Amino acid sequence: MIALVLACILTAILSMLYLGGAYNLSFLGEHEQGKETKYIETLGYDYQPQPKDMRSWLPKLTLHGKPSWNSSELDSFSDESRNILKNNKDIALQTLDPDSDSLLILTPLKNNAKHLTRYFELIDSLEYPRDKISIVFLVSNSTDQTQQMLIESKRQYQEQAPKDKWFKRFDIFRQDFFYALPRDQRHLREKQRDRRIMMARAQNYLWTRALRNEQWVLWIDGDLEYYPPSIIHDLMAYDKDVIVPNCLVPRRNGQGRWENSVYDFNSWQETRKSLNMIGKLTDDAFLVEGTPLITHCKHMDKFDKGKGLVPLDGVGGTFTLVKAHMHRSGVGFLTWLFQHQVETEGFAKLAKSNGFGVFGLPNHNIRHGEE
Fold first, then answer.
1. Which residues belong to CATH 3.90.550.10 in the chain?
2. What is the per-residue pLDDT across 143-157, written as a single tens digit (0 to 9) for each?
3. What are the angstrom distances between the C-alpha of 9 and each of 12, 20, 26, 163?
4. Residue 122 has pLDDT above 50, yes or no
5. pLDDT confidence band for 51 (50 / 70 / 90)
6. Is the peptide bond before 292 cis (omega within 30 degrees of 0)?
7. How confident is the model over 100-117, as a mean pLDDT?
8. Taking residues 340-353, what's their average pLDDT?
9. The CATH number of 103-368 is which of 3.40.50.300, 3.30.200.20, 3.30.420.130, 3.90.550.10?
10. What UniProt keywords are attached to this protein's entry (predicted)?
11. What is the residue-averaged pLDDT of the chain?
């Protein structure tokens, strides 16, 4: 027993002496330790990795995407490593530069069956190479024929149509979020925060599932009535991170006549008055356009008629063109308050805070279906 105790004491003394030499901290006072801590080295000396002794089993790819390993090397790897290597080409294709001018059209849908015929008529009218367009839908909480119509549309476009009408990709996802709100309540102010957060969840689900190596992402509402066939080229020509046209809707005026008025009040520019109002809000205050709240933001219809491109601070989601690298960088639709906004306006605020540009075209009009 005495021998065991003596052995433990000797071991402790030797360890202290070793650590003192290795770290240069043996028996230093508090003041001296503060001066010496910069000399601490994890192993007692400067550690330098030795690449030649650390073989990497994940080889680089050639310019043509072919693996640079040979069969004898592959045989020496584990089954798991071999499977990863065999998939490496496909993985790399998803991380290379985007396919030039490729466009991913994303549309979340709920009970949209009555609008799908017009939706595809407008898509077919686009003056853009069909083989550059991928189109992906998310069906959520639908109780009508939306999903069945999409499945049939995919069969018609991708199998029965002439080859020049085929999309590069046509996908349909289904994800229910179990959120029900009567259509006549969808614009009530007290419903907006929960409703918009649910919309953001659907949008984030869609783009994270759908985005591959496309260069552009276009978010389109499922119930638009009109947009010009040239609109994709028109918006891309400005080469902006985020850009939206002015979305109008036909409404009856005080005299009972139909006229186009602004539909998407989520596209706006901050003003001195709006910023002054924001400065007085608590951090948890949620802002949304519409009565009775007056935000003092400048909406798209308030810009001069001759005005071209204008910077925006909020955008809607009716027709929004986005450079795909923004989404890849992590800018999505917010399900939490950021600068008092969620969903698309939160997306715009987050984009700007990350250095991206957000713009609108007040005189480039599209039209939403009558409500």
1. 103-368
2. 899 999 999 999 999
3. 5, 17, 17, 84
4. yes
5. very low
6. yes
7. 94
8. 83
9. 3.90.550.10
10. Signal
11. 76
- pTM (global) more than 0.85: no
For the packed helices 146-155 and 116-125, what is the interaxial angle rounded to 10 degrees?
A: 40
The DSSP result for 96-140, as a single string, is: SSPPTT-EEEEEEESS-GGGHHHHHHHHHH--S-GGGEEEEEEE-
Do 319 and 247 contact (CB within 8 A), yes or no? yes
Report residue 218 as tokens. 């276009």
Give per-residue burial for 330-339: e unless 16+ CB within 10 Å, then b: ebbbbbebeb
- How far, in whole angstroms, is CA 264 from its chain's centroid? 20
* Residue 345 confidence (pLDDT): 86
**Is residue 261's pLDDT more than 80?**
no
How many Cβ atoms sit within 10 Å of the Cβ of residue 38? Answer: 6
Q: Helix (H) and strand (E) counts for the chain?
A: 11, 14
Note the residue count of the chain.
371
